[in-house]
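Quick one: structure for this chain?
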Amino acid sequence: MKDVILKYALKNAYDYGRANAGAVAGKVIAEAPEAKKDMKKTMAEITSVIADVNKMKKADIEKALAKYTFAEKKEEEKGITLEGAERGRVVTRFLPEPNGFLHLGHAKAALLSYEAAKEYSGKCLLRFDDTNPEKEETEYVKAIQDDLKWLGLTFSDVRFTSDRMTELYEKAEQLIAQGDAYVCECPQEKIKADREAKRGCKCRERKDSAVVWKNMPKMKEGSAILRLKGCVDAENTVMRDPTLFRIMDAKHYRQGTKYRVWPTYDFEVSISDSLDGVTHAFRSKEYELRDELYYYIVDKLKMRKPLIYDFSRLNIRGNVLSKRLIKPLIEEKKVTGWDDPRLLTLRGLKRRGVMPAAIRSFVLSFGLSKVESNPSIEALLSENRKILEPTSEHYFFIGEPVKLKVKGLVKEVSLRKHPAQDLGERHVAVKEEVWIDGKDAAALKKGETFRLKDLCNAKIVAVGKTIDAELAADEMVPKKIQWVSAIEVKPAELMVIGDLLVGDDYNKAGLTIRKGFCEKACETLKEGDVVQFERIGYARKDGAKRYVLSC
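Got it. Here's what it folds into:
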């Protein structure tokens, strides 16, 4: 909470010269609604932080602000505007490759395509980009469909690029017949050198490409490729006679050994989009240089031309969003799998307790902008807190427990499961002994009076391995402490998630386990339930006694 306060105090001071408590409070409550529970304490903290910030020089404020991310105006508030779009006739698509699990970057691509079609009462297709038999597997097809369903997306149709190989072969043969494609049998090293030197190879002028093409399914892997006759001296290296088809021996997860000559993404995506009736094609900015090739292919084939929209790739500070980088972490056992809660895969986010609505709000906030950004995960977690706050039951969790004995305390209390919503009550019996958090215990001093939240006031008599206290007068006291009844205790472990990386290096401290106790009432929770452990955060039940701290 103090970090959230500091974030907005710095921003307010930077914008207006001095931070104002009222303005900062409004921003803090918007991002962290739980601050409203104890406004006296919240305002005291805000006042303290502002006093320090207002002593800082503007240059120091600007430097301190660099670590924070502030949400931009959300694209969905004003809708997604598409060039030449006709209501009811817009068709978009999402193109996952079934070679791994979806991550937050995929969610952005899927949601932009889906919401754009929805904006114009159109259709969004799910088409698996599956023309690389070496990497793709059936398990990923199902996993991707499950993840998209969890995200709340229902597609107009599901298609597989590998199912239209006959049509792709026909288009390749059309290019060969027109003199716009040729079979190249040069070694890869020579092809690379020629492309770098902006020169064509002798295969470019061969007359037997149609014959050799027909024979390619019988040729050795790597012995020949089909290349587009582009422009060998183009400044855009993508246009220097790129590969359209290559020979691959691997068995395809869907087509088996029916085909050995497989199209590249650049070839099949332009043709498939046109054949599928796609009107507006969304893809990340990393493909921007390939847009010229996309249009060149459909122009040569005289096919209908979709409109391409390139958007900025999503990067999250302290994390990785690349299957290529995630796989080694799994293989080296640095993370437990694709659903490790430190990962920004959809499965990892689900296990962490991040809601689909929070993901939607977060990724759509960037809209179709090409502007690169590198936000922290906090913006997503902030959206998640807003969604969880009204519906999550409240409980106490005690880490590194220390026993507190309050002489004469024998009581049964009914505690609300939510301070503002009618979510029921949990009933707790206490007989003198309770457990309190080790951090709270370390800060207690002999003679100090504090409140066991929603239970009683107590005054410290002696501090040792066990802390002794006596009942105190029931009056307002500044310090409140969570507790768990010693006769109704349940062992619990809290997984605390941090950034996966520090700079470019794996963060060994990215996951820590706090062992302790939670309330007996927590035993009624089901795996997957998300609750709020007061003063700690929202946590998802992940096992019999394990919880993952969500935000």
